[in-house]
Amino acid sequence: MKVLVGLGTCGIAAGAEETYRVLKEGLAERAGLVLEKAGCVGMCYREPLVEVRDDAGGRFTYGQLTADRVARLIDEHIGQGKPIEEWLVWTNNGIGSEKAFLDRQNRIVLRNCGQIDPERIDEYIEADGYKALKQVLDQNDPDGLINMIVESGLRGRGGAGFPTGMKWRFTRLAPGKQKFVIVNADEGDPGAFMDRSVLESDPHSVLEGMTIAAFAIGAEHGYIYVRAEYPKAIERLNIAIAQAEERGFLGDNVLGKGFNFHVKLKEGAGAFVCGEETALIGSIEGKRGMPRVRPPFPASRGLWDSPTNINNVETFANIPWIVLKGPAAFNSLGTMNSKGTKVFAMAGKVKRGGLVEVPMGISIKEIVHEVCGGIKADRKFKAVQMGGPSGGCIPAELQNTVIDYETINKTGAIMGSGGLVVMDETTCMVDIARFFLDFTQRESCGKCTFCRVGTKRMLEILTRITEGKGREGDIELLEQLGSLVKNNSLCGLGQSAPNPVLTTLKYFRSEYEAHISNKKCPAHSCLPLLTFTITEACNGCMACGRACPNQAITGEKKKRHAIDQAKCIQCDECFKTCKFEAIVKD
Amino acid sequence: MDLFKLEIDGKRVIADNRQTILEVARGNGIHSIPTLCHDGQLEPFASCFLCVVKVRGARTLLPACSTKVSPGMVVETDTAEVRRSRKAALELMLSNHYADCIGPCQLACPAGVDIQGYIALAALGKYRDAIQLIKDANPLPAVCGRVCTRPCEVKGCRRNLLDEAVGIDYIKRYIADLDLGEANPWRPFVPPANGKQVAVVGAGPAGLSCAYYLAIKGYGVQMFESLPEAGGMLRYGIPEYRLPKEVLDLEINQILDLGVNLKTNVTLGKDFTITGLKEQGFSAIFIGLGAWDSSKMRVPDEEAVGVLPGIEFLKNFGLHKKIDIHGRVLVVGGGNTAIDCARTSLRLGAKEVILLYRRTRKEMPANEMEIVEAEHEGVKMELLVAPSRVITDSGRVTALECIRMELGEPDSSGRRSPKPVRGSEFVIDCDFAIAAIGQNTKLKELTEGRIPNFLPFGETLTLTRWQTVQVNDKTFESSVEGVFSGGDVVTGAATAIEAIAAGRKAAYAIDAYVRTGHAQPEPVEFCSRKDAYRKVTTDDLREGGRYARRSMPSLPPEERKKSFVEVEQGYSADDLKRESFRCLECGCVALFDCSLRKYATEYQVDITSFLGEAREYRIDRSHPLIELDPNKCILCGRCVRICSDVVGVAAYGFINRGFSTVVRPALGGSLLDTDCVSCGLCIGTCPTGAIVEKIPLAKPGPWITDSIPTICHYCGVGCGIAYDVFGKSLVKTSRNEAAQVTLSNHCKKGRFGYHYIQSRERLQTAKIRAGRELQEADLDDAIGYTAIRLKELARRYSGGEIAVFVSPRMTNEEIYLAQKFARVALKTHNVASLANLVNRDLDCPEVISTASYADLADAQAIVVVNSNLDEESFVVDLLTKRALRKGGKLIYIGPAESRAARFAEVFLKCADGRQPDVVRALVGEVPADSIGIDPEALAEAQGILKASILKVFVFNKDYRGARIARDERLMAEAAEELGCALLALREKSNAQGLLDMGADPRWLPGYVDTQDEPAIEAFEKEWCVVLRDMARGDADNLAGLLREKKIKVAVVLGEDPFGSEGFPKDLLDGLLAAEFLVVGDLFATETSAMANVVLPLCSAAETSGTYTNLERRVQGLRRAIPPVAGLETWEILCRVAAQMGYRFKMKYAGVDEITAEIRRIVPIYGGVVIGEQGPESIWDAAGLGLKPVPYDRGDGGRAAKAVSPVPTLFLDCLERRFDRWFNDIFATARETIEVATAAGLR
Hints:
Radius of gyration of chain A: 26 Å
Strand order of the largest sheet of chain B: 30-29-43-42-41-31-32
Shape of chain A: globular
Largest interface: A-B, 32 and 34 residues
Low-confidence stretches of chain A: none
Number of strands of chain A: 19
Oligomer: heterodimer
Distance between the termini of chain A: 57 Å
Radius of gyration of chain B: 37 Å
Strand content of chain B: 15-25%
């Protein structure tokens, strides 16, 4: 029997280390029982997760298995062999409350996540790890390899969706003595954590993918640019690199085939713009992370002016699978132009938040409602925000839109790296636009005029709108600035920064107008625009009066209270305090 | 490289695929693409997005600076969409630009006079430049200096926040009065008549101003005036005690002196009509009739005797009519006219004058100072009072019935309007009442149609409802074709300065109208204003100290009443100095160099479009030469990139992200804490005023300067720079963007080493020794004296006893003349530089550069020997780094680690003096280990050289470290053997030219042997002398002659051997032994102290001519300012020669003629294209007369006698002065910082 504890950052945050420690103590004397660490299976909303694998091949995943529940687990399931049904989230024989969540997925990138111990290379090897690399080196046909990737239809998962095989081919063909492979693990979108999870849960798949790429393009050196905010990923990558070097999967003369490949880890200091490839390259070179003019593209002049292939974590994680299963297996999934699967980080007002990997071509509706179980508190689904600060909002009316690069682009949003924020009726779209713009304007590298100043001015306009100080003409000004910033910026950050504003303006213009003309926030979210009143439901418990910081609420005990509007500062405290839904805001 | 065609703005051009749209456009004369972030020598950056263009087929606009051209591309650089985008970019940049372009004083001035500019000039004592600057905008400064309402001080001056406004008007008056008092007052340039006539009707301030600006544009101007004299209200409305008519007359006469005609006592509508003027052929008509009708009080019995209209009263006085006024006078009104009436009445004998005003004193429209003066003189005030009835006796006024008023709600003008208090009537007795409550125009009768044929058929003159002329407020066009109008007749009663402004602006519009048929408004320049972002407060001015305003000396009140003598007496020179230093210099010193402002004007930027938060930063003033003001920075990164990519220092960096990004010294310290080498290239590349030079003037202007391109006179590199000149003053040195030879780069000396030029210590006059004393003498006298003495001595002594020494910093023309003077007038071949004389043993004139800078910048391998490149030849170092960035490799041979060595691929370190051995090892003559260098490194160096095609060998010909005689020849031969072109560095600007020009006893200009009879014949013909009889010159002997004290007559030009440390004493003694020593220099030197005659030479900024740089490139210098002592050096030489009797042999009309003579008889200079940037400006070494002397390998080089060269860098005073100055200012700056740090202020 084997017990696995999910020890990704999400698990750890939920207390998985404590669970692990208690389990270890509790299971110390039991023979024939292995306790293992694993990565994250993606069910972040039910962490800590513990999986029990019995000798009969049965797999039982428990959710919210905090340390206090360990004793019962040891006693009932491990000791007596009786699974605790009310805690089960998934089993391989069709039980579990979250069955749909995992079973609707199609896991290529996440194939090993939560299944193996990321700190033990043997487990990866056992799961067919480094088999693809061996195969590639045996065949010794870089061009054939590149053709295979082209044929698979794999596109860059970092966001822009450039065909990966083409990129490899350009880099291979570019003249230059020295070439480089870079893994872009500078995952910076707020709400996105696919790359972190893959690096924490299955680092070898990325190493193997990049080594295959290095062989394809003829590089001897590679960098993994990972943000310093991911200490667990860095720790596990370092372990993985050391183990791979020890086993001969990295270093000089890989697998004895005369191919050399060295990998270095570069920690980024957390500048969002360093996710842009030229800025990332500059950062590795020791310069300020600032995008430069393209062309020349990195494929011809990248790191230290040498041809450089740079792909995202998720892209590389796909590679070994494609090599082993063949391009057809991959391109049979998905739509005409978007093949394979895509990992999404689900966040916001959705019931099941976490990582999901779904085939391309699935609709937003299916992801939100079927895979992720719909909206929290069964509120009304309003929109999804895709692609993070560079992306845009897709309204509920368009929920049948399928996941496909071109189709998503048509809505004004972008596929992006896979952040998917679900919004319900209580989300103010102006405020959401403001939130994302606040992020991009602060993360702008400051180089281009429009991005540096234009986004700042847009943010100021949005802020005043949400504060009830919007002016006639603000919408037009936002549109004008948005289009200027989009068209007059050097890199993707600036070119896409206005997207959250422009898409919300496109689909939710009336919400903007309500803020500006009527000084109302339809989602009841922008506090300065709200009027707080107490209804008949008030039973005079006096709690709200105590909570009010400005003594705006008066009333006698057991009698209906009232709010003095002149004194109310719209702090929301009374609303949060009232247990009887007697306070309404409008 | 692929060549193909494309189209830009409809023009078909050919380009290659490595070029950007911007490069192709500019290369084809299309200059409509603006850019702020692009600098030609840097990689495209594409951040400002100003250079966007429309490319057919592209989804968005594309930045031209970074977009490469492609075949068949169709580019439009100036569409409406493009302009919109550029404008938005500028508006966004300027929405975060907490800075003032010009001071609020100038903004407040209706005429926009450059107040900061003229105050700065006044502070520097440059009064003539100041009057010129004032008259650019106001032709009546002496008048305005007395009567102006001074909005510049009242509303404008920021000093109001600190203590009191600067006495701007007083300063102006001082400058103007000074000029009026000159025998030769400043007069504007008047171009030849353009044949067009303009009529100006009304000779008041508006008309006079209009006439002035039309006259200086070449128009014939005819003025018509209905009163007996010109001046309008200035003459007939303003009393003498405020504006003496004498002053007015002087300024009017200056205008009439420009050729303006004035006809007086002719009245429009009575004596002539508009139609008539048109028929007479006037191309345009300006109407400045003023507002001469006093408003009525509109009370009963106003027509009574003794009730006088104010303007009428003043006018009659002005017309010298007898005026009866006495007893008690009531003046109704609160404006300047009322005050003038009151004060005039007092002077005319009134016993008591009471001013009645319906509001409070605070609301009085009259000038505060006028009110105060009136009070001083005894004028009483009855405030909140209005007349309601005139009380008469037999038709004569005896009293006014008045009513008390109270202030109500503010009206549309913002003033609280007075309301009568019912029942508060009271009576004031009086003998006279003067109504001075307002003025109206007298246009009614002109426009009522009663004057036959007044306007051409079909035309009407539209008036406003206030009965003033309706005009276009920018072009001043009235409704009648070709008729313009301005001044009070348009605005109603207003100020003189407003009328003057209107006259000038109308003149601009009239000029455009006459030339093109369309009136154009005077252009309005963009102005960034701090107050638009955040109102400036007293806190912002903390750094300015508080100093009280200098008050205006005035007549004591008791004396005033007796006469009409001017009350305000004017500033003294001391008042002026002190007051002008009170100016806070709010305007930007980069005002006239700022590309941001230029484009903002061009694209009509509205500063308010995107206003929001604006960042405010502390200005970094720590560096003694460079000031960094991040408030003005637009983050183009040019300074950051030029400092890191070109100079290799990286003193600047971007700090923070997003909107908070700022350019600061790297890691956020002050500029003084960085590795800054003070080259000043950041200043030159900054497109705004964010990085500026700290101009070492007490007040740095700014002024519109002329940029005179020239060549730096420090080292032999020959960088193109520019002198920025205002009037006759050198303001600063700047980057010369056209100077492509050194990619418009320069070092700290080129940028900052100009201060000595205008130093007060410069020799202003000549000196002649009288006994033991050197006494100042008139230059002409000194020249005469020198000539007489030299003539006599030349007769007495042989050529062998006479010598002329010239500095290698003099121009080719000066050196040529000096040697010609020596050979023709003094009959000697003894002419040389003392620098060459003391280091004769090292002299290998035949070793010259064969490489150009272009070769260096493209080189694949560079060998550097005997040079700390970045110290000695900074720009050669930059070019080397450029080659290295392109993949070139540096092999550095020298004794010590240096900054240049750090960039080396191979550093072959050796003991000083062993460099030639390393070079011999490099060519394989000696094994590496025998000289103690690393064989592997040597092999690597050899490998690099073997693998490279383009190779340059750089060495310092003037290396003063230990060296072996004649090792230059070794270098030259080794270079040849290694396949390298040679670059021989020189420490002084014209060291090469000095040899070329024949400043050597052995040869004539062009290396013609003095005994080569067929060759010297050309010289004999040109110079009209016999040269073949002269004793052969011997360079070795010249030093010997000095040592043996055989030189009896010596002329030393520009060198200071006595002040030069280490200069051999025996040679100095030789000079001292001369019977007659003439020294020419810029400063009094230790050498000049020994002279019999000292002549003041001109600096390189004060003369034209040529320099030959170390590439052998002949480059042109241009005179930027006049020589301090009046004559250029060549003129002095010619005059001495002329007075010695060589009038025709040394007669030149200008430097050009000397250059032409050089080109005529010096074959190697004959074909050179001077001032070009291509190879044709380098003289052809194939035509060189000197044969290479082979390096004598017999002794292995090592047995040769080692010499210890005499350092000659400091043989003239410039380098020493620069070093001392530079070190001093840095020491002071460091000390300041230390003190501040110690005091916890940092």
